[in-house]
Amino acid sequence: MHIRYADRRFGPPDIKERMELFKRLFAHLLLQTDGDADKALDHLERIGERYNLFDEQLSFDDVKDFLVKKQIISANPGQPVTLTPKGERFIRTQSLDEIFRGLKFDPNGGNHRSNFTGSGGERQTETRAYQFGDDINNIDFLKSFQNSYRRNLDTDSTLAEEDLEVFETEQHVSVATCLLLDVSHSMILYGEDRITPAKRVAMALAELIKQKYPKDALHIILFGDVAQEVTLRDLTYCGVGPYHTNTHMALRMARDILVRKKQANKQIFMITDGKPTALFENNDLYINSMGHDPRIINKTLNEAAECKRHGIPITTFMIAQDPWLVKFVEDLTEINKGRAFYASLDRLEQTVFVDFMQNRRRKVR
Fold this sequence. Notes:
Blueprint: H1 15-32, H2 37-50, H3 60-69, E1 73-74, E2 82-83, H4 85-101, E3 113-117, E4 123-129, H5 141-152, E5 165-172, E6 175-182, H6 195-212, E7 217-223, E8 227-230, H7 232-237, H8 247-258, E9 265-272, E10 278-281, E11 284-287, H9 294-309, E12 314-318, H10 323-336, E13 339-342, H11 348-358
Parallel strand pairs: 6-7, 6-9, 9-12, 12-13
Antiparallel strand pairs: 1-2, 3-5, 4-5, 7-8, 10-11
Helix pairs in contact: 1-2, 1-4, 4-6, 6-11, 8-9, 9-10
């Protein structure tokens, strides 16, 4: 996250601008502290003091009081500071703003389009021959008269049903998405924070769907030694554990969820930085920390094939480029006929959202 003040040539930033910057910084710290508002405030105060961000006009107490007044945090005497329900949504909306701030979208993007046409939706430039029952408001009269003229040549041009052409229209369809987040230990290994941008994506995606696509469904699955579906509220407070990577269980759980959904389109987004190292079967957890274990890999690839059989594409976002990971994802993508992206940490949010917003053309019948 990059925060800077406005160009000093135009004078120092005003209080409102500075408060907005502190809000953005606080939201980022909440992601890093797994929703621990008390700890995030402590970090905010330390950062402010270290970089001289507070002064007579705006103190740390002013920032804290502002967050309380906006009902983002709850601060009662003698008790730890906690996030309010409004504060939990604050993280999601801030995450969405952070991602969209750096994106440039096609003005027609994100409208849940389909390759199949119908009576509803947006008018397209393409036309086709009129069929009985077509909406007469979609008739392209220019092309229809051109057809009549070509048919009659020098004779009197009279429109006939065979001359009529209508504009194609696009159906808008809903989508069911399972977002799989790798919470294995490698997501914070060697001091590299990979989980924060991954969580930001999940929260922003959830807020986007809630605001713009209310008929869509989003399910969030965390996977480490085992996979578990979590609520949006749980996601706010989740963190990385000393876990291995059970990709197989995550894909199977996602498939089980999606095959029951009523949405016409279904998809899996998976964010991971490691090859599968765990497998749960017959009530036992089998682990091979070295990775690339044929027993684990083959089971996982079989699950990818099952997803394909049910018409569920898998899009994998790799935030590491370990050769073994790349090989596994290439095999998984080939079997599932899905897609894979090699995303850097500073581009992960943009990569996921460009893909989510643009990849809306799907078959619905």
